[in-house]
Structures are given as structure tokens and as C-alpha cells.
Specification:
The complex is a heterodimer of chains A (109) and B (112).
Chain A lengths: L3 E4 L2 E5 L4 E7 L5 E7 L5 E6 L3 E5 L2 E6 L4 E6 L8 E8 L7 E2 L3 E6 L1
Parallel strand pairs in A: 2-11
Antiparallel strand pairs in A: 1-3, 3-8, 4-5, 4-9, 6-7, 7-8, 9-10, 9-11
Chain B lengths: L3 E4 L2 E4 L4 E8 L5 E7 L6 E7 L2 E5 L6 E7 L2 E7 L7 E8 L7 E2 L3 E5 L1
Parallel strand pairs in B: 2-11
Antiparallel strand pairs in B: 1-3, 3-8, 4-5, 4-9, 5-6, 7-8, 9-10, 9-11
The chains are: A mainly beta (109), B mainly beta (112).
Chain lengths: 109, 112
Amino acid sequence: GIQVEQSPPDLILQEGANSTLRCNFSDSVNNLQWFHQNPWGQLINLFYIPSGTKQNGRLSATTVATERYSLLYISSSQTTDSGVYFCAVSTGTASKLTFGTGTRLQVTL
Amino acid sequence: ETGVTQTPRHLVMGMTNKKSLKCEQHLGHNAMYWYKQSAKKPLELMFVYNFKEQTENNSVPSRFSPECPNSSHLFLHLHTLQPEDSALYLCASSLDRSYEQYFGPGTRLTVT
């Protein structure tokens, strides 16, 4: 099956700093989603981005499908950005989302 | 925001108990999913239903029994679970397969 790798596994930032999270995948995808999992376990949809670039406030994402990677940019980070960020993909007609192991982000004052 | 609800949010059960998890989506979606998130493993798919029909079973043990009476409701019936089944169980829905999936808040299950 498809492999999804996320980097870095852990990231500590001071409030106000910018960061880039990376997701590499091993096959062509028809669905790529970025999620933020809060401390209570809720998965919050950030982007649905199988290709191209999208922006939502301080967050933006870019997927280069031909090179099999996606990037999540967080600018001017806030303590509320802390949590685990997951990339998840699906291929072909499959409905199954395959998740990466996540990037654990901690934003400090 | 979430249009997917799950009950209960927390559940503690013994290995001989029978319990059920409930998921409801208010998004008009046709596909629903159960995922499991264990402490030391990535989130993994358990079951997929599309238009009430099960389309995927990811080699899940028979002590987990899903039920989808309609496109808005999904249940996971649990019986004779093991302590290693303790995990966060997440429900999701999408308009159709391969579309964007939306997740509920999860049920944190502890098997004693």
C-alpha cells in the first residue's frame, strides 16, 4: 500500500515563529488532507488539497502531485496551534485514508 | 465545526461486556467510516460504508461488528474485547468515496 512520511516528527516553536511541515507519499493520490488533532483527540480539517496551493488565514498548503509531496506552512504561530498535524492520502477509487505518523507541534510563549 | 457527532465520548468496559458506539452525521453524506487510533500506531481504517453497504473491512477482528442502518447513522458493536483494543475510535463521513472526509470527536475506549 501507499506509504506516507511526515517530517519533522517533533517541532518546538516560540510564539510568532513560522514553520513548514512536510508530507511525502509513495504513489499518485486523488485525495490529500491535512488535519490538526487537538489535545482532546478531535481531528480538525485544515485543507483538502490533492494538488495546487490553498491559503486559510495564517495557514497555507501546497501539494506538488508530480513530485509526491505536500507542505503545510504555519505563519506567526500561536499557542493554540499546538497539537499534532496529520497528512492523509487516498489513491485511485479507494476511500481509505492512509495517515502519516504526524508532526507534534508545541508553541511556547 | 463538525457535523459528525459520536457518543459516548468516553467508555470504560470489562472484557466480558457488550457495548455500542454511535456515530451520526448531519452533512448529507453517503459514505461513513470507522477509524482506530492506538497509542503507538498510526490512525488506521477499520470499516467503510457507502450508501449503507459495507465496502471495506480492513481485516478487523469479529469482536468489532459495524452496523449502518441508514446513510446518517453508523454503529460499532463491541463484545469480548481485549485490553489492547483500548484506543480512540473515530467516525468520519464524506459525500462519496474519495471525497474529503470529516471526523467526529471520537470515543475514548478503555478495556479493563
